[in-house]
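User: structure tokens for Heme chaperone HemW, please.
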Amino acid sequence: MGGPLPLGDPAPADGLLPASVVSGAAERAFGVYVHVPFCRVRCGYCDFNTYTSGELRGAKQSEYADQAIGEIRMSRRVMDASGLPEREASTIFFGGGTPTLLPAADLVAMLGAIRDEFGLAPGAEVTTEANPDSVDADDLVRLAEGGFTRVSIGMQSAVPHVLAALDRTHDPDRVPLVVEWARRAGLEVSLDLIYGTPGESLGDWRRSVDAVVAANPDHVSAYALIVEDGTKLARQIRRGELATPDDDLEADMYELADDAFEAAGYGWYEVSNWARGEEHRSRHNLGYWRGDDWWGVGPGAHSHVGGVRWWNAKHPAAYAERIAAGVSPAVGRETLDEPTRETERVLLQSRIREGIAIPSLHTAGRHAVAELIADGLVDAKAALGGRLTLTRRGRLLADAVVRKLIEG
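Assistant: Done. Predicted tokens:
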């Protein structure tokens, strides 16, 4: 069910945003994230705000689409009342949880509400996450016909014992079938991987990487496993039932994947993401990394507009009660001060291939560039052109690079 919500100021019942959000809004892209908090089984490593059927305490999956549509309609009223300019949604992302546990018709209805309230920009990217065992060929056709353009499939691994350690329930042999069904439906395809699972060898990881390359998706994400406090996995490691992930092995896994993806025609564009050409990059996630505006719909969803961040009630039942009462589901928010916004800008933009304009860094950061080049963490040629871009070694040590850029 995820960790606690962050500390912040109470959010107003009407959801109205401060006047400061209007500044520069017309130049910022606008996206929508829809959180679908339902899962068939809770994965042992997961710290997201998700709920199995036994944890809903009166909330109903069958009523969720109407509740989310209620927030979408409310969001348009709030943005208008806050003085924000009209902006079409350029990207929409349905995440979770497992969005495709809902009927395709429900997902299409929520997308339709976003289209009705905001409009969709020409060529808008519309993604849903899916598990390999939560969709079939007909579902994918319905989604494509309803306006979805992209599916992000939670493959995680091609090795049964690794999937079992992660509490994933799908048959790895189903993944290439789902990729083929999605292609036939006209959808772009991303495959998502996790590496560093306890008990996963470098050979196991190579098998998963090879399976991804053979499936020939448009996009690949590969994230190192993070052991989150409070999860089943953390308890298993604490009891000695599973080994702690090994940092050196994870670095070897990253390098193996990067080599294999590059050889297969995928270019890295963010530390953990590769795409077959710029046109297949996740534009929605790039919006996060570039600091664009987005409205997060659903229980526990976070939003960001013009330096103001807010978050919704976590539990689906509490969320539903607020929507039914006509009250904003937001329960807390914060206005980011300039030092925080600058730290986040450096943290996020340094992770993408375009990097950061060196003159935009504070004095300490500019002075740190030469040392970062000498340490092999930053590309020297790009730096001569005025951009700070990570080398592969820098990608492996991205957090250390950020600390150096901020602290000097």
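User: Anything notable?

Assistant: The chain is about 40% helix and 20% strand.
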